[in-house]
Amino acid sequence: MTLIYFLTFIVLLPCVHLDEAVKDDYSESLLIKPLPDGMIYNHFQFKTILHQDIEYLHLENHFDRFPLAIGNFISKNLIKELTFSLGRGHWKLNTWGYPLRYQPNGAELWVTLQNFNPNPWKSWKDITSTLSGLFCASLNFIDKAATTKPKFSLKPDGIFINDSYRPDNVFYASLAHEAVCTENLTPWKKLLPCFSKAGLASLLNAVQIFNSNYFALSLDVKSICRNPSCNETSTEITQSVQVVFNPPAMFEGKHRWSIVKFFGTSLKEECKLASSSKIYVETTVNDTDNSYNLSPLPETSIESDFQGEKRRFAVYDVKKMIEHNRNNNVNKFNIYSMYQKEYIYKKVNPPYITAHRYITGYGVYLGGITCRITNSLTKAQNVTYLDVIPWYLRIYIHTLSITSNNVEIKPSKLYHKPGKDRAQPHHIEIILELPPLSDTIITYDFERAFLKWTEFPPDANHGVYVGAATLTFQPTNFQNLTIHPEHTESLDPPTIKIKTENLLVSLPTPDFSMPYNVICLVSTVITLAFGPIHNLTTKRARIAIQSKEGSNLKDRIFKFFKRS
Amino acid sequence: MMCTIIKASFLLAFGFIIRMFLITSSYQKMIADRVEVSTPVNSWRRAVEGVTLMKLNISPYEGDTFHEVPLFLQFYHFLLTNFEQWIPLIFAIIDILTGLCLSLASYNQLKTIKRWEKIRLSKLPSSDAKKLEIPEKSIAQLSFRVLAIYLFLPYSIMACTAQTTSVLINFLVSLTMLFISFGWRVIACSLVALLTYHSFYPILLIFPVLMVSEKTNQKGKSFTYASKSSCFSLISCSIATLLLISILVMISKSITGSYDFFSSTYYFLLSVPDFTPNIGLFWYFFAEMFDQFREFFLWTFQINSFVYSIPLSLTLKNNPNFFFLITLILLSLFKPYPSVSDLAIYLALLPQWTHLFTYMKQGLLVACVFISCSVLAPLMWHMWIILGTANSNYYFGVTLAYNVGQIFLITDLLFAYLKREFYLSNGIKVDDKDKPLKLELSAE
Predict the structure, then answer these.
(1) What stretches of A169-270 show up as alpha helix (H) in DSSP?
(2) Do B403 and A454 touch (CB under 8 A)?
């Protein structure tokens, strides 16, 4: 018997390979871009790539840099792609142009599940609860009534080799009322290989970055090509932070900035696990009147031309600089910039496609939603509009009207899924061709539902938030686009997703102190009907027997006392 | 006769002009948006939404905006595709036809009631009989009044202006009344089946309809439920009606492909998930309900809406036409989503029962309640919803008062009826001062 075991072992030995750590790679970067109105846009990007297909992630894999929590989470819920972001503040599209990614106020979650996921809805539920635990966000409020499956708007970012893309596996939800704060940032930082102890992440000082004009935090998981022939895939996690600072508010009204002042700390230590750690400063504006000097001088610079749109970046290698500082016994790492002349505020050209959405109507019963999309290009542009409205604003699709420069236009595609009370939001998706130089107005009417007194959020009279609408389009040029110097390999501009404003809608409220009174009053009225009808139907009419005595008041009183 | 026809046609034309004027005016949207007129189950906006969804290849029952049955949806679809510009005209014509049907029905009914009461009156002293008799001359006059009131009642005009689908329902109800007054029980029962199929609650109308037809069959003699022939015809008729309803449901199933429409229509009516204010008793009660009691009160309220028909069908056996009116009032009172069109149809029918008015006590009170509620409801709504200076209790108070008014009306009518029945059987008993003696109800 022992012999058989031994032989089996010998035979199977070549098949058993010892688990070795799958190769992974980590890189970090910070892009600093002066915005046209003098504000400074900072975009941190931390990228971890695991050279393994997302479908084959297992607990047994030994991850070096790849966050274990996320790895487990992906393999358990069979996720293909995930985008999770939290935002605070409003990105001023008209003056700031298109950001690298657009996150409105609140939380947003977009998940594509793997095709062979046996129970997508259960996975979705698990994903929301896990993420809400992982990031201390109230994502557990995402239920069926907040979830949609967009048809055209959300196209996958990553590549699909092992399975095909099915729109049915896409889940999308946003929570506009979600507040973002330190408690979300801290667990987010813990996913990084060097945590916030070393590297660029040590700049993410909560006190400073929440004191900004705009802040957004995100986590993306997707599949990318492992090699140029793209026959194998790797799993990529991108963690990014976007912060917009207002330098005059921090530098006594002066237009200058420094990393130490922005983040309240200097870079002391590099992240040794990072394969690259770079800071890019966009210096494209230096050709204009508002040119600035950088100090220390950048090591190298990148210049690229995107179909006539020139971009220049100063590049700092953090690792080298810290090494250099250490050798020279300087422990302060800083980059700062000063304008050569007085800063000149100029008229800013808004991006060629902008969208704004607002509530129309008065009172708290009927209303409408209007979205104004401007196309300032001299050619037509295809856009996809996605709006998810909570069920308690009952959308009437027959009131949908799309006019462009006051001429009615027909959408090339319209998808609508009507809402169901407490179970499903209203979902409108429109593919539309915006005529050149046009102002397109999409409107539809809604009726507010009257909720149960227990269904209202706290502070019911404040109103409820409706998540932003998404406008997706493929831009034809790079104008007003923020370009990350590490993403310059593709020649076509990336798909742009812009978001409209969140809406605050007040709902009609019942009197929250009345339940008991209402029950009493209505029951009394019902009894008022029941009693007499019962009497009239069960009794017979007859001549009232009138007693001789007791006709006047004195007798009645007398009788009353006699009886008692 | 000629004169009446001229007068009636003048009234009809005038009613038609008023309706057409309002429908085409800018007031139309204002009236259609009023919650007293348009409820989740009858608003034209939702009907249009249902048709639009259907045209977009989306099942209207997938969402929660449309709550009417498939056959009616098909009908609206037919109207909206073929006669879109003519819809105001169609609504106005249907509404004035309703008035006409009601008036003809009450003319016929009064004639029949008079015929039925002849035997009973002949047994009374002639002076009493004269007092109790419905004067022959007044019959035409009264039915004319029914027409006039329906045509010029603000409630019916508003319901028609808003193009609520209740206009069609009221038309079907008036047709039922008309056919039953002719004694055509098959058609009347089919109409009740159609009404029941549409919104379930009109199933209550089957009681008076069957009773009227049975009474007509018996040539006005009072009948007992115990007699074999009555029993048989009543049961067979109700089974036929139920069969017809199930056939309609089956047809709807084959149109939509599934029973999904049940949850958006009948279940919607029975479980009352929409708390949009209306003039009924349900909305605020269930919006404010403690969750653990919701089910209990839902059952109580729904049973309460149906339970009255059984005792009333025993008490009002002698005059099932009157039972029809009482059922209409009960429907308006205990439906989860009533509207002013439910009020309009029974208010228009009241002149038919002027012979009961002499025994009523609360007439003034009820009239005052109705008038003041009609004024206060829009005011309170405006203060709550538009200005934000009042809250929901203000509007709730008005609807509560309105329902108390309806309850007073129904109990007063019933008591007046019982009084007259007593006098019809026993003669008018007077005391020594020639005043009628007081009546009381006794359990013996």
Answers:
(1) 182-189, 206-209, 247-250, 259-263
(2) no
